[in-house]
Amino acid sequence: MSSSETSTQRIPPFVSLGSARAFLAPAIAHGISSKQTVSVASAGVSASVSRETHAPSISNVLDSIDDSSPIARELAHENKRRERLLGRELPKPEKTRIFTVSNQKGGVGKTTTTVNIAAALAAAGLNVLVIDIDPQGNASTALGIEHHAEVDSIYDVLINDVPLQDVVAPCPDIANLICAPATIHLAGAEIELVSLVAREQRLRRAIDVYAKVRAKNGEERLDYIFIDCPPSLGLLTVNAFCAAGEVLIPIQCEYYALEGLSQLLKNIEMIQKHLNADLVVSTILLTMYDGRTNLAAQVAAEVREHFPEQVLGAVVPRSVRISEAPSYQQTVMTYDPSSSGALSYLEAAAEIAER
Questions:
Q1: pTM
Q2: Would the pLDDT of 48 be above 80?
Q3: If we measure between CA atoms, which residue out of 252, 260, 289, 248 comes closest to residue 105?
């Protein structure tokens, strides 16, 4: 292309927000010559972005886009969210807050919620521990922690009384974030726990001892502990409920999730009555929200009506980036920190920290 020519590329009205960002990125990354112009047209509205000497930043490009079209409005909104959230400092809690992330229904985003909120809090400078008690070990995978059969894991803590400090490992991508991994041995732990003394309290005692060891060694206390549970109410999940003070419930915005929620609340009542009177359902997070469907909006409205104080304002959308991140052994916070999914988890983490 000669210096006097102009290159014009158009984004069709139906292109997704992610595609629009992907469309802009190459031009921004490689620079635009002094007389080249990229014209972004969406729903019949175009906006020109030019450069004199240096390639413009993404924020400058997004700021210059006319917000009269749906895609441009969404881009502008995400840019404002990004500027507000990235690099934000969050307050430290007065004491360690321990969350059990639980839902008896599978596939609602328990593990995804656990690792991404933990990563968001750790990125803000807080000390966070993730305890993976799901035999599948997905939280360990997402945080880049080894969890093959030869590795000491939370199984050894629960069954063999191995100290928690001998099991935890640092997340390679995020400072201040450590994880007690799960291995396949946990699959048989439910049976082995049955015959042990104080079987429901073993995780709680391990956490208490670990806190004392950290204090003795002069290490900073943990600000948050998140326990990722399997989708069942066996002894592993009961141990998590007994160890925690708060329950975080991710709810997929579909009808079946509402049925599972009512049963989960009944089980939590039983735990409160017999094993842990201090346990409260403090946080509910709506996940996999699809704003294009009426069902998602109806489920969200119904949950907010019944639990107005527990439901977070942040809603996690369906996101390809969130799904892709674990395949790279990362959270979405490090895989694509500017994605809509990462921003949603940042908002959720900020809400939790400020409550």
A1: 0.78
A2: no
A3: 260
Locate tokens 């009177």: which residue? 277
C-alpha to C-alpha distance for 126 and 302, rounded to whole angstroms = 33
Calculate the dihedral angle through the C-alpha atoms of 91, 97, 103, 109, rounding to the nearest 10 degrees: 40
- Virtual torsion, Cα 142, 92, 84, 345, nearest 10 deg: 30
Q: CA–CA separation, 113 vs 322, rounded Å?
A: 10
- The Cα–Cα gap between 180 and 172 comes to 14
One-letter amino acid for residue 314 of the chain: A
What is residue 152's three-state secondary structure? coil
Q: With bands split at pLDDT 50, 70 and 90, how would you rate the model's confidence at 107?
A: confident
The total number of residues written for the chain in this structure: 355
Determine the pLDDT at residue 81: 65
Measured in whole angstroms, the distance separating CA 89 from the mean position of its chain's CA atoms is: 17
pLDDT, average across residues 141-148: 93
13 pLDDT higher than 50: no
Q: Give the integer Cα–Cα distance in Å for 352 and 226.
A: 12
Q: What would the pLDDT profile of 228-239 be if each residue is shown by its tens digit?
A: 999 888 899 999
**pLDDT for the residue numbered 68:** 62
Per-residue CA distances from 222 to 83, 125, 154, 174, 201 (Å): 28, 11, 18, 15, 20
Between CA 16 and CA 20 the distance in angstroms is 6
Q: Compute the distance between CA of residue 8 and CA of residue 345 in angstroms, rounded to an integer.
A: 36
- Can you tell me the distance from the alpha carbon of 307 to that of 300, in angstroms, rounded to the nearest whole number? 10
From the list 318, 174, 199, the residue with the least C-alpha distance to 254 is 318
Mean pLDDT of all residues in 76-94? 73
DSSP sequence for 253-285:
SSHHHHHHHHHHHHHHHHHHHHT-TT-EEEEEE
